[in-house]
Q: What sequence folds into this?
């Protein structure tokens, strides 16, 4: 009979969470490397190169892959014969592991969890509590799988109670375009079928803990109907042409995982949860012999991809930016930003809105400025700023017209903009620029200076002024309202249909 110590659980959880903050699962890296080799869309290939380069940099520097270091989910399977040497509950042990991991002085992770979610939304400061699922199983060990899920991908989760005769494939193909690019493709789709509403969601989340094996599955051929369904959904989703970061291309999903469960005869619950380019999960087993520590991967296993700025990229001086320059940009153009830009996201925009309504002066002048939607990780050592990739821009859509009326020139964020924001951008002859989600450490290297200039009490959501050098972005919405996230996938969908470009991946 194994005796499992409280401290061993805590230490193992903390180690695993630090590990997954800077090491991608190698199955993801191998699959992304294959996608890079096959990709024919220039913008998508550039985005994948940034993600792969960022991944290796994080593995070498032990810094977060993404500034959104996620909400922690733990799947804990406890052997029926286990004896505990503990005073804490399983939830408390996991939470203490989360606390230690996220407050680690050498690699402090961003605390993103807020309590009182319907009202005050006050940050808990240590990323607790985790979401913990406990299952009793035969045996005398404790198996734990931990995952850290970013808000951008979690927010794109879908669920529906289908009729028994409804098509699962049709529903997925209807939902994926609605997800846009805020989940940072290319990644995985986890699908849960059956059970009850909450069981289907749990199945979808747990399926994402599986290793990517679509290439191997296609090579040997499907052996059951679920494997046939996985392949069908994988190929039909990629045929949509959405591509990396929604920029149009061949690789939207690297794999599709499906778990199912018996359900009521009148029901067909289905859930779909995407995993983003910052896929983070790890598995370990405790047998009573002490903490479980994960073995570091071999850096030689990363693809030999080193992102460098495109020779076609346009250099932009933010300190001398004029409306005429902004109006010269066209959707799909790649830019390298230089100079000073402001930051701000949800909380800052809401506070600005409240201050304007009261007639109060703002702490920052926005006229002629560019704003970056970001909530960076705290710096360590000699860093100017920690990993600082973009957050999902659609959350700022309702504030866009208000900000443009303050004289804002352009915005930088992640993924597509909605009709409300695109209309405001067109009306004000502004532009929306997209940075690559999943390349936070690489992007942070372009930030040479950082200082808080407003709302310091908001922490990572304060308004900063960044000094940047060759900060890479793509023009996603130009001053005429032309939208790369709408236009590029249409082009690639047609290319794929005509030329059957996905066939080499098989």
A:
């Amino acid at each position: 009979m194994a005796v499992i110590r409280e401290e061993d659980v805590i230490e193992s959880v903390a180690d695993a969470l630090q590990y997954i903050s800077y090491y991608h699962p190698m199955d993801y890296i191998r699959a992304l490397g294959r996608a890079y080799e096959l990709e024919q869309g220039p913008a998508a290939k550039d985005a994948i190169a940034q993600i792969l380069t960022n991944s290796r940099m994080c593995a070498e520097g032990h810094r977060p892959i993404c500034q959104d270091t996620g909400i922690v989910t733990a799947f804990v399977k406890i052997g029926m014969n286990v004896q505990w040497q503990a005073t804490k509950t399983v939830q408390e042990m996991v939470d203490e592991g989360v606390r230690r991991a996220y407050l680690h002085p050498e690699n402090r992770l961003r605390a993103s969890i807020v309590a009182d979610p319907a009202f005050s939304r006050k940050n808990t400061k240590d990323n607790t509590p985790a979401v913990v699922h406990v299952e009793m199983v035969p045996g005398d060990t404790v198996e734990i799988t931990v995952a850290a899920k970013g808000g951008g991908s979690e927010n794109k989760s879908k669920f529906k109670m289908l009729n028994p005769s409804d098509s699962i494939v049709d529903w997925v193909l209807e939902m994926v375009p609605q997800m846009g690019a805020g989940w940072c493709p290319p990644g995985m789709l986890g699908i849960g079928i059956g059970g009850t509403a909450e069981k289907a969601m749990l199945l979808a989340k747990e399926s994402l803990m599986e290793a990517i094996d679509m290439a191997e599955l296609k090579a040997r051929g499907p052996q059951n109907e679920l494997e046939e369904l996985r392949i069908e959904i994988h190929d039909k989703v990629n045929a949509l042409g959405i591509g990396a970061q929604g920029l149009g291309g061949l690789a939207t999903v690297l794999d599709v995982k499906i778990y199912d469960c018996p359900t009521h005869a009148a029901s067909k619950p289905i859930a779909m949860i995407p995993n983003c380019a910052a896929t983070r999960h790890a598995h370990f087993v405790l047998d009573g012999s002490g903490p479980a520590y994960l073995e570091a991967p071999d850096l030689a296993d990363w693809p030999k991809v080193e992102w460098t700025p495109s020779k076609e990229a346009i250099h932009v001086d933010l300190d001398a930016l004029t409306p005429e320059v902004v109006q010269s940009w066209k959707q799909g153009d790649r830019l390298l930003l230089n100079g000073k830009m402001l930051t701000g996201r949800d909380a800052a925009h809401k506070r600005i809105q409240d201050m304007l309504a009261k007639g109060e002066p703002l702490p920052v002048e926005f006229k002629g400025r560019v704003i970056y939607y970001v909530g960076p990780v705290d710096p360590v050592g000699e860093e100017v700023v920690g990993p600082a990739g973009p957050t999902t821009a659609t959350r700022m859509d309702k504030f866009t017209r208000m900000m443009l009326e303050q004289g804002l020139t352009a915005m930088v964020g992640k993924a597509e903009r909605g009709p409300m924001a695109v209309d405001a951008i067109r009306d004000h002859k502004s532009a929306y620029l997209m940075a690559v989600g999943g390349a936070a450490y690489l992007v942070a290297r372009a930030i040479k200076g950082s200082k808080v200039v407003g709302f310091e009490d908001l922490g990572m959501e304060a308004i900063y002024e960044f000094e940047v050098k060759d900060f890479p972005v793509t023009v996603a919405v130009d001053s005429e309202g032309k939208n790369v996230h709408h236009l590029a996938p249409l082009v690639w969908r047609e290319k794929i249909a005509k030329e059957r470009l996905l066939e080499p991946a098989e």
